[in-house]
Amino acid sequence: MNFHVKSIMLNYAFSWYDAVWFHVAPSNIRSQKSVEKFGAVFVKEEIIKLGRNPENWRCYRIYRSDWERSRAKAS
Q: How far apart are CA 69 and CA 58, in angstroms?
């Protein structure tokens, strides 16, 4: 998913919530770098059941204030 689409999704999410979480597979380095690029920070690695079976996920979070700051810098 490209940055523009993620921006649209985050703008919408932040109209309702103060923080957004991303759960990324530990082997998916590309997605880890992508979420870090727009300001999400790694918080923890955790076993979570998001589908049929519990799996290991890297959990990233971004706060609305951090997102707004990163957008202001990009302008």
A: 24
Contacts of 34 (CB under 8 A, 6+ apart): 1, 6
pTM, rounded to two decimals: 0.84
Residue 14 near residue 63, CB atoms below 8 Å: no
Closest CA to 25 of 52, 1, 60: 60
Which residues lie across from 47 on neighbouring strands? Answer: 56
Element containing residue 22 per DSSP (H, E): strand 19-24
23-68: pLDDT as tens digits? 999 999 999 998 898 889 999 999 999 888 999 999 999 999 988 8
Topology classification of domain 3-74? Aminopeptidase (3.40.630)
Q: Residue 56 has which token pair? A: 């290991």
